[in-house]
Write a structure and sequence with these properties.
Layout lengths: L1 E7 L14 E7 L7 E10 L2 E5 L11 E2 L11 E10 L4 E9 L12 E3 L6 E9 L4 E9 L1 E6 L2 E2 L16 E7 L7 E10 L1 H4 L17 E10 L2 E7 L5 E3 L3 E5 L3 E5 L9 E5 L8 E3 L5 E8 L2 E4 L5 E17 L6 E7 L1 E3 L2 E3 L9 E5 L5 E3 L6 E10 L8 E8 L5 E5 L2 H16 L1 E2 L1 E2 L12 H14 L3 H15 L29 H13 L2 H24 L31 H23 L4 H19 L11 H9 L6 H14 L10 H11 L3 H9 L6 H6 L34 H10 L1 E5 L4 E4 L9 E8 L2 E9 L4 E16 L7 E13 L4
Parallel strand pairs: 13-21, 19-28, 36-39
Antiparallel strand pairs: 1-2, 2-5, 3-4, 3-6, 6-7, 8-20, 9-14, 9-17, 10-13, 10-15, 11-12, 11-14, 15-16, 17-20, 18-19, 22-31, 23-24, 24-29, 24-30, 24-31, 25-28, 25-30, 26-27, 32-37, 33-34, 35-36, 37-38, 38-39, 39-40
The protein binds beta-D-glucopyranose.
Length: 839
């Protein structure tokens, strides 16, 4: 028996994260005859002194063990914690971990400083003496983006800090262990600043600059902890110097120009004491660090017909390219990012106004080169240089928030496996501190609709509770000035964006993302934190519709609705399904979720939201359903919503209508942002799994494997962002890395593998696989918050389907094989064989 995944507020060994309210979690791997936890004991210590001991707690919840409020933590302090678990067979295990608090609400000794002149990049420096280097910590925030160096060594292994958040509501402090970086005697700290999301160009159609501030800022303290105590040995103040930066141009969209000839220049002046005026207060971080998570060598160095040199890294990824430079002084090398070649030539017009370049000017010294204050979404890099380059000089690094993959699917169909990989990369590439629409063109924004649509699939595939905690804090902050409505983009772009007030199903992210986070990871503390925001969005809609007559239907407003669906005669990006039907359906869904959330949290107002959701449903049925209980919106999305949101009582027949609509459309889907994530789920739920699998396996446009056949390594924004001849669709808005249609994977996990949660955090699951001979075999695994589930099936040569199902320690599962009654099982491995006859 082994205890694993010890986490504090869903982060492993958090250093300087916000940890209030304090919540512990862990998983247990056990042998076959240990079925469930009898008790767990949690101990917490500070400097070796015990400050909390739960004793043998029979109710201890491994998904969210909340410490009593009277356990008080101190700033800048390391805590050890330990879990012991006793299983029902008498076996036990023990494991330990630790966490360290940041500055919490301690007053800062450091002051905000800013370069004297407004600039797009600067280096703020200070020399200082250390008598006795001890355990040292750096507490820092730099705006827009910063990297901090002590004696020339970078503090920490994260990039693009402090990340992208709603700066006008909160600023995040990072804590670094800099113990090894200090030396006895003179030391130097240098904070490199760039524009980032804070000050640089952001937003499409040219966008805006100086959104959150028009200067660069930094605040920092280094604390040295020795036997004789803890001392703040460096703090930002008016004595710091401002040095010119070798970075002479930078922003997120256009890239960076780095002139190495400007390295190590003398200070040009001092700093001002100046606080970022338009920003929220400083607090310990919630953002996961952005780290290098993968590397790619050049797959092919291409000389194009026109004579360009283009590097192909074989995967569309988010990050940057680093290279070894050994060029004479003054040599300039420029890399330009692109996602696709056109007729064998480099192309990046689909990135719109984003220049996506990195230029390096050599100072004649050998150097390992990389960008600092930007990132790219790319598969290809064009190299412009009057110099010799070779493939082995370059490496691509994938950067993203540092979360783990927890879900895997492997089938007997290589194209379906490639689709899984594409969906996974779509998510990894678009979860860089904020869930973004795309990582490459002049957007890379936290569009709430895209984030909402993918959230179920993302929670199946990746461990995201801490990632979403931060996004949802920003969302609630933005809601606080929009009367509870959820904006289309979080963090919100303040000026001029259309319809900031709640477009369906973008704004529904405010309810659906926290709910999916709770369902998948089972953390009630987090649900309680998000509950006010969830409720606020439903209350906002209620107020709106009540002023329009109180029928409990959404009767107006702008809604993206089934965005990019193909069922409209007009080639507009809006689908044909009545947006007000969709908006009312989501209003119902959100009210229902708030009722369920209130029930889960034991709040009395569950009754009020249950009543509201019932009333909305009645109104929807009256207006949008005929006397047979079938949806009157004549689209795939209309029927899929009716089935999946239980709007109809006639699921079977509505499913028949849906399957017929697919047949009438030549066996193709024509859905957009609303219909696509639920289409296959609705078909399987209503008894048409074969049609759902046919849609999955359809290789023609429009369908998932169409892009796989055209060599995609991520999911495209439109079903036909690339035409069959390999040219980019002339319609515009063609990102090749939009994750929305990767939402098919939730169906793969929930229905085809058949692993579906029936209690939050997978404490209980429903395992109902839907084998299909066309896929040959399939194996799905999810390392859930409650442990690892697996569901595999294969068609054997002798006409059987063989199932293998694994259920983790201290959980319970209901297994339903096709056409059979449910079997209830606890932890263990179960195999079944069923005759299905020859091919
Ligand atoms: C984005 C989308 C986003 C949409 C809003 C696009 O430009 O890339 O994914 O949700 O605008 O309709």
């Amino acid at each position: 028996m082994k205890i694993d995944h010890l986490r504090v507020n869903n982060v492993t060994f958090p250093l300087g994260f916000q940890v209030t309210p304090l919540s512990f979690s862990w998983t247990v791997e056990a042998c076959e005859n240990a079925k469930r936890q009898e008790w767990a004991r949690i101990r917490l210590s500070e400097n070796g002194e015990k400050i909390f001991d739960s004793g043998e707690d029979r109710k201890a919840d491994s998904l969210d063990y909340r410490l009593p409020a009277d356990v008080k933590l101190s700033p800048r302090t390391k805590y050890g914690w330990n879990v012991t678990v006793l299983a029902d067979n008498g076996e036990s295990a023990e494991a330990s971990s630790s966490f360290e608090t940041g500055k919490m609400d301690e007053k800062w000794k450091g002051q905000w400083i800013s370069p004297e002149k407004e600039t797009s990049a600067a280096i703020l420096k200070k020399r200082f003496i250390v008598k006795e280097p001890g355990e040292a910590r750096l507490y820092i925030c730099g705006l827009g983006i910063y990297e901090c160096y002590i004696n020339g060594e970078k503090a920490g292994d994260e990039f693009l800090a402090p990340g992208y958040h709603s700066y006008d509501f909160n600023l995040q402090v990072q804590t670094y262990d800099v113990t090894g970086l200090l030396t006895a005697g003179e030391n130097e700290i240098a904070i490199w600043l760039g524009e980032g999301w804070f000050k640089g160009r952001l937003g499409f159609d040219g966008g805006y600059t100086n959104l959150y501030g028009d200067r660069l800022y930094a605040i920092a303290e280094i604390w040295n902890n020795t036997e004789s105590g803890s001392e703040c040995i460096v703090r930002t103040d008016e004595t710091w110097k401002n040095c010119p930066s070798p970075v002479i141009f930078n922003n997120i969209y256009d890239g960076e120009i780095y002139d190495a000839q400007r390295e190590d220049m003398e200070p040009e002046g001092g700093v001002l004491l100046a606080e970022p005026e338009k920003c929220g207060p400083l607090g310990d971080r919630l953002s996961l660090p952005i780290r290098k998570k993968d590397t790619f060598a050049v797959r092919e160095l291409i000389r194009t017909p026109k004579g360009d040199t283009v590097l192909d890294f074989g995967q569309n990824l988010t990050g940057w390219v680093e290279f070894e430079c050994d060029f004479p002084e003054g040599t300039q090398i420029t890399l330009t990012a692109g996602e696709i070649l056109q007729k064998g030539e480099f192309y990046h017009d689909n990135l719109r106004t984003a220049k996506t370049e990195f230029t390096y000017i050599s100072n004649g010294k050998k150097a390992h080169v990389r960008p600092h204050f930007t990132f790219y979404g790319f598969r290809y890099m064009k190299v412009d240089c009057h110099c010799e380059v070779s493939a082995d000089m370059f490496t691509a690094y994938h950067l993203r928030s540092d979360f783990d993959q927890i879900g895997w699917i492997k089938t007997g169909n290589v194209k379906v496996d490639q689709l899984f990989s594409n969906a996974l990369w779509g998510m990894k590439d678009n979860l860089l501190d904020v869930p973004t629409d795309c990582p490459q063109r002049d957007e890379r924004l936290g569009w709430t609709g895209d984030a909402q649509v993918i959230s179920d699939t993302a929670c199946y595939s990746l461990y995201l509770p801490a990632f979403y905690r931060k996004y949802l804090r920003d969302m609630r902050a933005e809601q606080s000035i929009l009367n509870g409505a959820v904006p289309n983009i979080v963090p919100r772009i303040k000026q001029g964006m259309i319809s900031e007030y709640g477009s369906c199903p973008w704004a529904d992210a405010g309810v659906i993302i926290p709910w999916n986070t709770y369902l998948h990871y089972g953390n009630k503390t987090l649900l309680a934190e998000n509950y006010t925001g969830m409720k606020a969005w439903v209350d906002y809609q209620r107020k709106q519709e009540e002023t329009k007559g109180g029928s409990h239907l959404i009767k107006g407003g702008f809604h993206f609705a089934d965005w990019l669906a193909l069922d409209h005669d007009d080639p507009a990006p809006f689908g044909a399904t009545d947006p007000l039907y969709i908006a009312s359906a989501y209003y119902y869904k959100c009210a229902d979720i708030v009722a369920q959330a209130a029930e889960a949290l034991g709040y009395g107002e569950a009754v009020e939201y249950r009543k509201l959701s019932d009333e909305i449903l009645t109104s929807i049925r009256e207006k949008y359903f005929d006397e047979k209980g079938l949806c009157i919106c004549p689209t795939q999305t209309g029927s899929a919503l009716a089935v999946q949101f239980n709007l109809t009582e006639n699921i079977r027949e509505e499913g028949d209508v849906l399957a017929q609509r697919v047949r009438d459309n030549g066996g193709h889907l024509n859905t957009g942002f609303v219909g696509t994530p639920i289409l296959c789920q609705a078909l399987t739920k209503s008894g048409h799994n074969d049609t759902a699998v046919s849609l999955l396996l359809n290789e023609e446009y429009p369908g998932w494997l169409y892009s796989v056949n055209l060599g995609a390594t991520t999911i495209w924004e439109r079903w036909n962002s690339v035409l069959p001849d390999g040219t980019i669709s002339p319609e515009g808005m063609n990102s090749l890395n939009h994750y929305t249609y990767g939402s098919i994977e939730a169906w793969m996990f929930a229905d085809v593998c058949g692993i579906r949660l029936s209690r939050a955090g997978f404490r209980r699951a429903l395992i109902a696989p839907h084998p299909d001979r066309r896929l040959g075999h399939l194996c799905g695994r999810i390392d859930t918050a409650a442990g690892t589930y697996e569901s595999c099936w294969e068609y054997t040569e002798d006409g059987k389907v063989r199932y293998e199902i694994k259920v983790p320690f201290s959980t319970e599962a209901q297994i339903i094989l096709p056409g059979e009654d449910a079997v209830i099982v606890d932890a263990g491995t179960y195999t079944f064989e069923r005759n299905v006859g020859p091919k």
